[in-house]
Amino acid sequence: MFKKILFVCGMACALLANAQSSNFEGASIALNLNSATLASKIAGTVAVGESSTNGSIQGAYSFALSDNGLFSVGATYALGDLKAGSISTSPKFTIKAKNLYTIYAEPAFVNGNTAFYGKLAYIATKGALTTSTGNYNQNFSGTGYGVGIRTLVDKNLYLQVEFMNSDFRSKTVNGTTVEPDGTIGTVGIGYKF
Predict the structure, then answer these.
(1) How far apart are CA 111 and CA 103, in angstroms?
(2) Which of 8, 35, 103, 115 is the most exposed place for a label (fewest CB within 10 A)?
(3) CATH architecture of 2-192
(4) Euclidean distance between the first and final Cα of the chain, in Å?
């Protein structure tokens, strides 16, 4: 009798474990706090960087691919500017990342109530450049890639931590080549519908 109970309990646990990717399936939203260290290569040689923080909103939809496989697509939008570098010597130069957004895909491995994911993103921002010759706005876009972990704290509420590297394509602004890049660390709280 004891062996039968153990067998039934083992089967029930196996079935629950097999359904774990469905814990994350569906639509979700999140609020994030971002800490970024962004740098800008200026004229191909000088790299200057600064750290700053902002918030962002996130929306996603996740599909269960298998018992432990998950695939998500989503987008984020920053709720503030990020410093992207400055030079204090002549010529003076400052750049901020404004209206930063990403569109991303995330394959994930799910273990219980925790998902470990990789991220590949299209990332874009408006660079607000201030130089000794004037103010300029230039749109930058590029690729973001990173890793993260998301864990359910109850049926619908989750916490997440992520690190993403961003590589923007260079642009020429007033005769100077500018190329921002950097790393963004994110902590967030989300709701899965």
Answers:
(1) 25
(2) 8
(3) Beta Barrel (2.40)
(4) 41
